[in-house]
Every structure is written in C-alpha cells, then in structure tokens.
Amino acid sequence: MAKLMNTRAPTLLCADIGGSHMRIARVTPDLNLVERRQIATPGHDLTLFVDAFSQMVHQSPVGIEAIHLSLAGLQDPETAECNAANIPCISGIALAPLLSQKLGMTVRIANDADCFALAEARAGAGMGHDNVFGIILGTGVGGGLVQNGRLIVGRQGLTGEWGHGPLLRRGDRDYPYLACGCGQSGCLDTIGGARGLEKFHFWRCEEVRSSREIMTGWLSGEPSCQRTMEGYIDLLSDALAIMINVTGASCVPAGGGLSTVDDLIEALDRAVRKKCLCKTATPIIVKAKLGNDAGLIGASYL
Ligand SMILES: [Zn+2]
C-alpha cells in the first residue's frame, strides 16, 4: 500500500504539548518533520502558556495557515474545553478557540494517545488496516481508535480509554485493588503502566523495583519478576482481547516506554490471540513504528 501523504502539510504546523515540553514542527508531504523547536511548557500560567506557544508559531518562516496540536490531555469536542492534569493552566479552558483568535489561524486539538493511534494507523504499523486500536504502555495506559482512517473521538473525547472502568475487585487474591486517578478503584490503569507495574510487583513480591528492573528480571528468569509479569500479561491481555472483540481492530500498535521491550509485545500478542474471538496467525499487538514523532505526525492528520 502506498504511503498516505498529507497534502496540507506545507502550510501546516504541528505541535506536541506535554506536561514538561512543547514541541513544534512543520510536517512535509513525505512526513519529514522540519523546522523543529522545543521549549518548556509553562504549565501554571495561561498567559505565559499562550505567549510562549504564539512565539514558537511566529518563528516559523513560511506562511502557516493552520496548527494542529497533540495534547497530553483531553478536549471535549462539544465545548472545546481541555482537561490536562499535567498542564493545569489550560484545564477548563477552550484552548483551540483561544489560540485561533490569538494567532489568526485554524487550530485543532486532539489527545496525544489519539494522535499516536492516528499516526500509526495512517503512516505506521497499522497501515493497510481499516480498524486500528493504538495503545500506549507508558507511565500509565492510554489508547485511541481509528476506523477507516478516521479518528473516533467520542463523547467528551474519551474513546479508547481502555485503562479506566473498574476491572478488578476488592479482595482479589491475584491483584491489588488500588485507587485510580479517574476517581474509581480497580481500573486497569492502576497496574497497566510502568508505575502500576511497579506497584503490582511490590504488592505481589514485596520488592521495590523499577519497571525496567522488573522487565530485565523477567527476561533473565528471576522467579519474582516472572510471577509479576505472568499476572501483568494475563490482565492486560484480558482487557485487550475484549477491546479487540468490541472494536474489531485487526492491528494494535503499541507505543510508550514499556513497548520498547520486544518480548513484552510478543508475549502480549500471543496471549491476546489466544483470548480474542477472531482467530488469526498474524500478530495483532505490534510495536509502533513512528517513535516519539507519532504525536506530531498524528496531529498533521487531524
Ligand atoms: Zn481509572
């Protein structure tokens, strides 16, 4: 399948707004990111945030008509209000209209996991698949759903949030019942990301280990790490099998820090393909291809 080109790129800037840094670049039609810039995110002062962002945009040498943002947070598609735990100054603010007015150009915003999924579906590991569910295994878990090349944002921008919704029960012998950042308890997110894995390992084996150490221990055959990883892969593959049954996704590109461990992706894929209803010899859970630039590239397709 030919690479999908973004024909709007010459007049489009893309930005990746995280809790610590904002990155901006122009995306060329062949998906090269040029004129890159990065500054610290002023997370606590809206005026500083808007000024810093505007300054980055104004440094662009070509006539920019639009800017698309991948945001470490959510945007309600009805009200345009953002919710970003790590960038408190924009929470509750309709950021796209505000920036659009200030900059005099079209501004579109989407969640960073959604931009990741869109990028992988259109130009990465999910190319050629109609139904792509992109997952982030990072500090926590996130995800985004792309069907027929189109991002499914859903009500309040929440589609693809497979890490939330109580999954575990109080008193479970195999898993801890932990409070989640979303206000509920027992969500997959309490165990599924790197911090969750560390908590789970402590709960199961009473050892304080980093997620990296747990992975290394698992791969070198340490019994405690194997015990943890067995439960971890079992739980994640349960949730992913359900997601695949519900969405019909035929490709699940995985990004985020934990996804760099090949054995983890392969183990998850094997477990998921045993559990989901659709039987296939082709891997479903695969490593993402676009790395750290997925957010910027995905934003270009908004
Ligand atoms: Zn939750």
UniProtKB/TrEMBL annotation:
Q: So which domain of life are we looking at?
A: Bacteria
Question: InterPro entries from the xrefs?
Answer: ATPase_NBD (IPR043129), ROK (IPR000600), ROK_cs (IPR049874)
The protein's UniProt keywords, in alphabetical order, are:
Kinase, Transferase
Question: PROSITE patterns of this UniProt entry?
Answer: ROK (PS01125)
Q: Provide the GO MF annotations for this entry.
A: kinase activity
Matches recorded under PANTHER family: BIFUNCTIONAL UDP-N-ACETYLGLUCOSAMINE 2-EPIMERASE_N-ACETYLMANNOSAMINE KINASE (PTHR18964:SF149), ROK (REPRESSOR, ORF, KINASE) FAMILY (PTHR18964)
Which family, according to UniProt?
A: Belongs to the ROK (NagC/XylR) family.
Which protein is depicted?
N-acetylglucosamine kinase
